[in-house]
Amino acid sequence: MTRHIGIFDTTLRDGEQSPGAGMNVDEKVLVAQQLARLNVDIIEAGFAFSSSGDFEAVHRIGREVDGPTVCSLARAKPGDIDAAWNALKGAPKPRIHTFLSTSDIHLQRQFGLTRAQALQRAVEMVTHARGCVDDVEFSPMDATRSDLSYLCEVVEAVLAAGAGTVNIPDTVGYATPAEMEAVIQTLRTRVRGCDRAVLSVHCHNDLGLAVANSMAAIRAGAGQVECTINGIGERAGNASLEEIVMGLRTRRDFYDADTRVRTEEIARTSRLVSQITGMVVQPNKAVVGANAFAHASGIHQDGVLKDKRTYEIMRPEDVGVTHSRFVMGKLSGRHAFRDELAKRGYALTEDEINTAFERFKQLADQKALFEEDLEAIVSAIVGKVPERYSLTGLSTRSGMNQKPTATVALEMDGRPAEDSGTGDGPVDAVYRTIAGLTQTKSTLLSYRVRAITGGTDAQGEVSVRVEQDGETVVGNGANTDIIVASAQAYVNALNKLELRLARRAGAGPRPC
Ligand code: KIV
Ligand code: ZN
Fold this sequence. Notes:
Elements: E1 3-4, E2 6-9, H1 25-38, E3 42-46, H2 52-64, E4 69-75, H3 78-88, E5 94-101, H4 104-111, H5 115-130, E6 136-141, H6 148-160, E7 165-170, H7 177-190, E8 198-203, H8 210-219, E9 224-227, H9 241-250, H10 252-255, E10 257-258, H11 266-277, H12 298-306, E11 326-328, H13 334-343, H14 350-366, E12 369-370, H15 371-382, E13 389-399, E14 402-412, E15 415-422, H16 426-438, E16 443-451, E17 460-468, E18 471-479, H17 482-504
Parallel strand pairs: 1-10, 2-3, 2-9, 3-4, 4-5, 5-6, 6-7, 7-8, 8-9
Antiparallel strand pairs: 11-12, 13-14, 14-15, 16-17, 17-18
Helix pairs in contact: 1-2, 1-11, 2-3, 5-6, 7-8, 14-15, 16-17
Bound molecules: 3-methyl-2-oxobutanoic acid and zinc ion.
């Protein structure tokens, strides 16, 4: 019988550890709602002890998102476990995921623990977590570089202490598929209690093997995989959810295993995570890259026209890639707009709907609107932060043989301000002028622009990553004029920075 493989999504925890991919609480809730539509089994919503934002995210996702089990990470420390439990209270299906290293290099060089001390602490903390919830997962961190006999001993002990899931992390992406298979097989044959528990894997992609290692572990009997949307995560990232899910679905003949994921939601989830984190998906990325279903060679095109199966092993519609469907036009009313958002699962407040509708009307006057346009409008609104600065006017002059010039009007703390400046290009002129007006000293780390829908009337979506005093944020903007979208993205980033720096200083946003 086909085995069910549990999908444990850690986009909101390990995924958020990607440098610069930080999300605010509202954004996390939005992603979690989409993960529920995708039908993942478990959402790791954060690391409750690590910050008040993570605590709130775990708390809200546990209460507001229906369907999946909601999990918080916790180090093997009573304070962490108690914070996880407090954040999870009220969630219908809570899980605590606690972890402690088992490799000698971590124990000796980082934590100063002997193997015996680590084993004892792992057992005590699993017992402590079981005092709070029934569903406890334990991860022996750096498992793949741990002594295998010791790993077996730890796994057996935490199972006996009440862990229902033991997750084997390849923390530094060091393992090979054959090794991963061997570890799972060894645990299954040597460890008492393994047959009554779920064995899970969590693979990092440092050598590009995260998905291959996860698939090898599934072949060897793992019943859960930890993965992220678009493969984002610490350093080179985690195993990519969409690749594992489609690998199992497409090669069910080989793996005899499958997930409950609604694959038609994959493309949309990938776009949402990319928009919110500012982490662009490479065009040749398997399953969700822009070229994943594009056939360039004449021979391939000929084959696909005759029978798609000649060169397509998955149907684009199975992962939610369809030709952009026309959704609404300028004659659509507020009611229809609200219904369309609800159909797509967006739960916005009345104020947010009004703002979204205004933006929709402006855009619908200029062009036909597609599903992706709606998503861009919504994510720009939900990702909004209190606005110290707002863009009220913009004009630029540029061309061959003339110095690019920008005139920018802002409202700053409710007061109008305007200035002009020059730069190396129109966007540079706009950014320099905004920086001058706001007297901010941030550094632009990256600037990305993408056409959301096809055609020269497409909405351009700009995403910038900006840093100041050790805080990095992503700002987004979307407009049919990419210079305006660029200005919006930069102003959005400055507002986020303002909020972060003020929170760090323990105050509200600074007055002008
Ligand atoms: O990579 C890792 O080891 C982790 C653990 C916390 C599971 O993320
Ligand atoms: Zn990890």
